[in-house]
Amino acid sequence: MDDANWQKAPGTGPDHPAITHEDLDRARDRLAVAQARRAGRLRGLRVFWLLLGPGILVFLGENDAPSMLSYAATGAQFGIGFFLPFVLVTFLMGFVVQEMTLRLGAVTHRGHAELIFDRFGPFWGWFAMGDLMLGNFLTLVTEFIGIRAGLGFFGVPPLVSVAGAVVIVLLVVTTGRYWTWERATLTLAAFNALFIPAALLSHPHWSGIGQAFLHFGPLPGGISGSMLLLLMADIGATVTPWMLFFQQSSVVDKGLTPKDIGSGRLDALLGTLLAAAFGIATIIAASPLYLHGVSAKSFQAAQFAQALVPWVGHIGATLFALGIFEAGMVAVITISTSSAYAFGEVLHTGHSLNRPLREAWPFYAILLASSILAALLVLLPGAPLEYIILMVNVIAVLAMPPALVFLLLLVNDPVVMGEHRNGIWANVFGGGITVFLIAVGLFYGLTTVFPHLIGG
Amino acid sequence: MSPRHHDPDLDQEEVLQLLEDDQLVWAKEKVHLGRRHFSRGLSVVLWGLRVYVVLMLVLIVVRVVQTVSAGH
């Protein structure tokens, strides 16, 4: 049936729901899931294949250019001893948070910004939006830094790499179909795995890696200013406000329902494990710089790939540079989409990737405008790029506690969640993560005001 | 396997059956959750966190200025 006929269908009037293009596409997705659930062989796998997406995308999207460069800086400056298990723990924290977000989206069918405005009012809503928009825009800038740096390794001029990335975003987001967007972005995100062969080419010491996980050694050299910054950056590489807004909105756009929460959890867990593996691989890939005493403190993005050539070879360095490009590219798509979802929800304009361009042009305009503005800023010369990249993740950690409190309030609200509200353990872990992030932030603040509290 | 593979013509009844009531765009535009009022304790927590974020952002600016000026 022609979509246009839906608007004119008999019975469609003030007392009857008007079916939109967005509803129709979402119903098609739900029909596929319903048919897969009735299928005989491999039913579970078919259903999971259709339902996976938001969880993997949010975690691989957060394995973005600044995150991968934070991991590389970590491996280069401090080796693997403390940080391999630490990164795994931060990803498990991320899973706890994103599981709540998934449930919130599947139960309410509303985005995170929409729920905050509806339930807590515009006063608190705009604070949350301010945190999100500031963090998203700065992060987008750093994604383009990563894209520029990654392709710069191959001699691609900055203008070409940044403009090319904007064109890719344009092509991916204007398909007019959530499913197509999701699968295209997932395909791109699969290249985050490039850090695994890069790590293998660095000839890792497997016994040392095993020791690191078994013993969770102390911080090498004690706590210093640069160590604290990297700790904050590594935490910010796994738990950030945009992840809450993005995953909830994409769960809604995909049309997940409470029946799909189990598959959604598996999706988020798979994303957690994949992202943790790729993050850990990046630390391992950069660790030869630590072992051979190469100072990486002043390294900017592309220099990591160049510096690794003696230990991982040209192929390994190429994979590393391509991985940084991919990490930035996927994050530009997911983060700009999270900004557009949030604005659409708050301004009550169309906010679905299932809507065609003509129906939801403000949604697509915000998505593209935020990307283009960030891209333009990156072309300005003279910024201390590596430091900006680390600071963005620090800002993400600092903005996270208020976002987590809103999340915990929503996910414990019986009016919002009904029988799906948090149990005791989800609250214990969620509350614990919030307190931990506040404590880390306060410690960072204290050491900024009183630098003599710690060394270096 | 993709949803387009199973892409039959859906009529309005089928769409209404496939989607939950509050999943329809129409329903989301019409129905809003009521406003929740905060207790005094919760307001204090939220304001405290707001002050925390602002203070920390100032400290980040201080740290960046310190680093950049140390570089010169």
Describe this structure in words.
The complex is a heterodimer of chains A (456) and B (72). Chain A is globular. Chain A has 19 helices and no strands. Helices cover 76% and strands 0% of the residues of chain A. Helix content of chain B is 62%, strand content 0%. Chain B has helices spanning 12-18, 25-30, 40-71. The longest helix of chain B has 32 residues, at 40-71. At the A-B interface, α2, α3, α7, α17 and α19 of A face α1, α2 and α3 of B.
Relevant terms:
heterodimer; A: 456 residues; mainly alpha; Amino acid/polyamine transporter I; B: 72 residues; 3 helices; 62% helix
Topology, pairings included?
The complex is a heterodimer of chains A (456) and B (72).
Chain A: H1 3-6, H2 21-38, H3 43-51, H4 54-62, H5 65-78, H6 83-108, H7 112-152, H8 158-173, H9 178-189, H10 195-201, H11 206-215, H12 225-236, H13 241-254, H14 261-291, H15 301-347, H16 361-378, H17 385-411, H18 414-417, H19 424-449
Helix pairs in contact in A: 2-3, 4-9, 4-13, 4-14, 4-15, 5-12, 5-14, 5-15, 5-17, 6-13, 6-14, 6-17, 6-19, 7-8, 7-13, 7-15, 7-16, 7-17, 8-15, 8-16, 9-15, 10-14, 10-15, 12-17, 12-19, 13-15, 14-15, 15-16, 17-19
Chain B: H1 12-18, H2 25-30, H3 40-71
- CATH superfamily of chain A, by name, is Amino acid/polyamine transporter I
What portion of residues of chain A belong to β-strands? under 5%
Structural class call of chain B reads mainly alpha
Rg for CA atoms of chain A: 22 Å
Elements of chain A, N to C (H/E):
HHHHHHHHHHHHHHHHHHH
Can I get a quick summary?
By secondary structure, chain A is mainly α. Helices cover 76% and strands 0% of the residues of chain A. Chain B is mostly helical.
